[in-house]
Amino acid sequence: MTRCRICGGQVRKFFDFGRQPLSDDFRAEEDVAGAYYFQLAVGACASCSMVQLLEEVPRERMFNYDYPYHSSGSQRMREHFAQTARDLLAAELTGPDPFCVEIGSNDGVMLGVVKDAGVRHLGVEPSGGVAELARKDGVRVRTDFFEESTAAQIAAEEGRADVIYAANTICHIPYLDSVFRGVDALLAPDGVFVFEDPYLGDIVERHTFDQIYDEHFYLFTATSVRDVARRFGFELVGVKRLPVHGGEVRYTIARAGARPPAPEVEALISEEARRGLHDLDTLKGLGAGIDRICDDLVALLRDLRERGARVAGYGATAKSATVLNYAGIGADLLPCVYDTTPAKIGRLMPGSHIPIRSAAEFGRPYPDYAVLFAWNHTEEIVAREAEFTAQGGRWIVYVPSVRIL
Length: 405
Ligand code: DWN
Ligand code: SAH
Ligand code: ZN
Fold this sequence. Notes:
Bound molecules: ligand DWN, S-adenosyl-L-homocysteine, zinc ion
Oligomer: single chain
Strand order of the largest sheet: 7-6-5-8-9-12-11
């Protein structure tokens, strides 16, 4: 039996992807033998409703100097984080000497804007390579995992934070108890802990099952976040649905009693109850969607191969590891994947070993079809690669169902 990482209750499995590689482990041909595999299965706690993975991957295996994902790789995300920074500056960082801490600051895409406003800030980022990129832009970063001890040290050295912010990071941290105790140590009495992560409600609704992989340990809801916050003396006081990464929620958390909860919080929690979002039957329904999508995608790729069409992938996303390895798609069906990230180009996709080529080579020559693994950046990529469709190329997407655009 698997015990809940939050409350010790029983986690009931609703889907099992089998043995899977690490989603951001892009290796050179000669290194693939050493790749790490784990059991990727997901369940919901029968006691506290938190949806979580059943196996935890040691954090240093995922988040280390070589972590390849650069947050600044998308124009839309750069704009999203600039707007986020401006909103925090206007609403929360207004005192005489405000202090903003970001957990998982990556290449500094958000904190750079806070820095430019002349506001005291600190990123906490364990992955040394991306932390160095942020420092090159003048952003202050501590190369460390955020947890209770790190937070206590920061509080002692720099004082309390008015804002602790995190995007696509809190769901990556199984040891949430330590995170909340750290927030307790570091947050000013009237400060806010703001974080945004993929929303289980959107994953279920849009069948975006490829949000499930090693790094995404938790799939949050307003209900589960409210409950975990309460365990540590905090209250969920705000929720905002965000369109980025296929649907996320931004949670605002304050010390219990410090701020009144906005009406949207109760509204979203009620909606989740109405939808039965934490019921095992609802969650098992997602499983049927996963199998249908993977079967349809494999059938389409086989059909295209038989017809002699040239097919490639676009976007060597972490998400794509789940699709490719669960569906069993290899280089025989998809000979290569194009991507703009320097640390991924020339490497192999984890598990499927499909080679990654520079997006600059996409048109030399264009394939007939391209599977859009970065479906969350569809608008941006379709616009950037307008010449591909102008020359007759067609995009293939697979969420919420397999379609040729
Ligand atoms: O949660 C996470 C999110 C924030 O980032 C992490 N656990 C890991 C990562 O997930 P992902 O790899 O699925 O994220 P993206 O943003 O969907 O990745 C997009 C990929 O596509 C990158 O490798 C960059 C590439 N890309 C490209 O080749 N051309 C992206 C754009 C916008 C482009 O035009
Ligand atoms: N915030 C960025 C990066 C998301 S990727 C964005 O939204 O684009 C997840 C990031 O969290 C990685 O940079 C990873 O190194 C970092 N991370 C993982 N565990 C962490 C922890 N315990 N404390 C701080 N950062 C962590
Ligand atoms: Zn639980």
